[in-house]
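Listing 4. Sequential folding, example run.
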Amino acid sequence: MPLGWLVAVRGLLCLAALLVIGVLVWQGVTAKGAPDPLEPTMSPTSATVSIAVLVFREGLECILVLAAIMASMVGDSRAHRRPVAVGAGVGLLATVVTWFVAAGIMSSLMENVSALNLQAATGLVAVVVLLVIMNWFFHNVYWGGWITMHNRRKKALLRDAGQSAITSRHLLFGLGLLGFASFYREGFEIVLFLQTYRLKMGDGIVLGGVLIGALLSAIAAVLTFVAHRKLPYRKMLVLTGVMLGAVLLVIVGEQAQEMQLAGWISTTPIPVLKPFLPAWTGMWFAVFPTVETLLAQAMAATIVIGSYFWARKSNRSEPPDTAEAPFHSPNSHAPSAQS
């Protein structure tokens, strides 16, 4: 990248960071009093950012898996990329259909269940989804195993096709199924996670966050599959993983608050903390001066951090051949260690 463009990009990033800091300072100066744990206070901006981070992070994982599948499809086997891409496209359509089905189910449940109880229930689902994603993120065994499973399936299909064990139609169907599974698994997680946001914030906020995350994912996909750029997937996933950890703490705080509003758990104020927690801390970070919300966030942080160190310890004791699969462009001719 030319020096001028690099300076311009860094300047824009600094301006964006200053804008975010300015908004937070403005919220802190103008907000009065301590956050009320019995009032829902999630900021639309905070919700949009959380949704965008999750969608982008899941999009990166999908791109990574598809890149690993297509990495060895060069030369005469380049035509095999098309059914994989078609399968991923079908996965996108299936994700959209799943969204409308899930939204319809939630709407029908609201006729018989109170809104607070339904928000608390869907919030629990969102927390579970995020904990599962964070648990997988910190385990190299997951990355290697997930990619290896797809590559083994791909190799088996191509081997059987070469030995005339399966027909060309079955080969195309199998490769399409690989693409479908790679995309739809991520899409299904996103659909489950977004239901609680839809109930609390409405379709507009959800759509905005999804569009931002999808745009970032599309840029990464174009650079990977069209421009054949070797992106720093590891650094990008680490960055989005850290951001997702912050999102998890916010969601856990909001979920504990929803459970308090629904009467599922008690509310135990901590008066000594109220002077140190202005209203904007509850609006932006879901930090409330109550025992239940802070304890829930502490437990979530302990699970994530503990999972990270447990994964590091487990990976050190594993043999070298089970290490994490390398990240490379699908245009690379170097075979993957997992393929």
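-- end of first protein; second protein begins --
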Amino acid sequence: MTGRVRIVFAGGGTGGHLYPGLAIARAIVRLDSGVEPYFVGAQRGIERHVLPTTEFPYVLLDLHPLYRPRVWQNWRTIRGAVASWRRVGQVFREQPTPLVVGTGGYAAGLGLAWAVAHRVPIVQQAGDVVPGITARLFSRRSVEMYLNFPEAARILRPHHPGSLIDTGAPIDPPPTPRPDRAAARARWGFPATGPRVLLVHGASQGALAINDAMRGWIERGIPDGLCIIWATGKGTYDRFKALDGAAGGRVRVRDYLAPIAEAYAAADFAITRAGAMTTSELMAWGIPPILVPLPTAAANHQETNASALAAAGAALHLPQREVSAERIDALVRSLVAEPARLAALAAGATARARPDAASTIARRILALIGRQATHS
């Protein structure tokens, strides 16, 4: 295939459904600058803030999720889909479009449906152990599905088993060579060697249950030989910022970590939510986490993510109902006191890592549309 072509990326709503698409799109352009990624997302999703800051063209449509507890509001979902159908068709007709990439979430459904109805091939990236309803609905129609968790293969019903590809999640991989850990710690004001560094964050919005337990733990006294980088989320930062510099300067409190690589480079282990992108980044950096799944996540997918990684020896699973200052203190002290256990968890995390997933998926997509990668 020659000339410029467009690949449509359909997905969004949350960062876990948008950022994988961006990582794949950038990997595709690095390999073949003649391909134009084009994003179709929702006006009410995170993409309304993120896509305007990227290099890619996009359209935001009046798309809504299925309102399961409030089924009477599904008229919004139907109205938005009907009104947006024609605009999706315009996107496809503006430029040759040989493939659609679905990255999940309610924002993916309409683009995938239009493609299937008009016989445009589709592929999907599935982020969680239990893929969402969109991923499951279109699994039989997908030429290939790229799995973050190989365990997801048990849930999906593909048209052919060989269409399920264990790639890992497409993320921005750690730099090569890795940042010097001593220098990274010095940038946080920590000793270059000796103490363990714990990274704590509850995704972009923060996690109040984790934050409240962290405050209680820090106030009662953290272990000697431990430093903490703690991102509270912007919404609750004012409630916890007074703890910045606590424990003799061994606690650093921030509202948000950007770029988060500066924290990853310094960290030995972490306490985080169990979203697909967060866990994939931690695995890529070889950072074993104590995972506190969000109990209200759709289909309880964070719980299954955490269980799968714990079973693989790559993480510890701490349900939110058990989160407390005392429980965190006990877990952290046990890991600090048992270097061999922490090292085994780090090795388990590294074994689950797929830092080159975005490039792997990009190459497969270019092969599907008959284009050869022009760069390594």
